[in-house]
Amino acid sequence: MKALLLQLTGIAGYELRLQWRRRGLVVLIAGLVLMLALGTLFFSRASQRYSFYAEGAPRPAMNQSTMSGSWAAAWLILALFLPILAAETLPLDRQYGVRELFDSLPAHPGIALAGRVLGVWAGVLAGLGGVALADALTGRLAHGPLDLGRYALLWAGSLVPLALYLSGASLLLAAPLPGRRAAALAGVLVGIFSFYGRATVLSMDITLTPSRALWPPIYLDQLGRLLSSILEADYRAQVAALGIQTQYFGPTPWENLQPLPVICALGPLQLLVPWLVAWLWLRWKETR
Amino acid sequence: MDRAQDVIEIRGLARHFGRVRALLDVDLAIGPGMFGLVGPNGAGKTTLMRILAGLLRPTRGSAHVLGHDVSTVRGKRAVKALLGYLPQELGLYPDLTAREFLDYIAILKLITDAPARRRQVQVLLERVGLAEAADRRLKTYSGGMKRRVGIAQALLGEPKLLIVDEPTAGLDPEERVRLRNLLAEMAARCTVILSTHIIEDVSQSCSDLAVIQGGQIIFRGHPRELIARARGHTWFLTTADGARPAAGLTVVSTLIAQAGTQYRVLGTPPNGAPVEPVEPSLEDGYLWLMQTG
Question: What is the pLDDT of residues B251-271, one digit of tens each?
Fold first, then answer.
């Protein structure tokens, strides 16, 4: 068991290294840093003109409102490019000519695949960590001190799970595909799938039926909205404590969540589907 | 040869790809040492190697490698744990160094003790002559150096069986000699199956070989036996005016000299032709076999 765990972490470590050296992830992360910096600066100027920030809201309470506007753009970049990058992972093996060698090795295919997914996730997490740091610095310069705990929670509950889903699902779904082009197409489909979910949320078209739970918004996105709701409630409490009157609050954010039992029952299925696809492929490959 | 010691036992093995019959009822037993599998391109060598490596399932028949049936999932897994494999078209991750690549493969071979793994990688890098370039990215390596990395990865984990498919294709003579010597060294420790269409590779290092053509084994034995088949059919034919040898003679080589053009030919020359008998080489024996079947 220990040996398998060591093997898993070893594979993940090399996948992480490969992801960073291929530059695609680096370019994506740089794009995110730039996008978020511009967004933060833009919202800084906009807030000086229009928002209630000038009315004396404490700086730490500004996290979510300040950041979430530019995060929509960051999400868009992630949804468009990250699935394509991740989907290429296994088809690239074929292009490099290492696939046959890997198939001849005694590593259990399931362990090897899980290691690859973990490696991609580690790369994405490291990249997003860098983006979060850069974004925090920009936010600090533009708006003043940030509530770092809430800021980290905001990341942990929104862009991070979304990025993990996008990269994991696209890698697994593209695993059986023969070439990079087909894999990229699978990545695009995963991106569109998540985009559809977010578009539904942004238009506040939330209908709480079990059948909707099978669609996007996805399970991890639900988690993001749960955490966002916590932040929103926290923010409202702070603003209310200051006695500030504002017209910017919409409906209660908890209403955006689907019933918890539905999420618990059906949400994980959305993550299991890509695993199932990849697992069936591995089984087929071993017996052919 | 003592068949009880056979490392590989193949019976009635066939593999079809749609209408293409890559292997046809192959029967073969391979013992310890270095075994050469020779044949022209498309003869079925790689298909046979891939079946033995557990990468391909036979359509019919059986193949037991080190006692494991490679047509079952369990057998394939067992064989892979004992195998070192160098595929015909080996690619490497261009963004890793040789040391990193070998370390990665060692992890996949379940060598999880990090210090032991690093030591083994270093020893193999030295053995294949890449210690000095070990920390350079693989995209900077020449074809020969990449082949050596391929050999090194196959040797990781001290395999009981080494399958190398066309290891010297495209290499310069110096690299080929180096690789051949390396494989010969390995044959003292484990069974090596060398698949190639370059006869010279086999003649220098194998004491047991099979020739495959059209998916069937058409010769099995010692290289001496193959050479013997061409004895009495190999000639030097010299022409002063550069005229081509008569139809029916296979030209093995041509040497243009001041005295005329000297051909090395296989076959039965016409009466009165200016020929002198020559001791055949393994290449002559192979070509004669290909010609006569």
Answer: 888 888 877 888 898 988 888
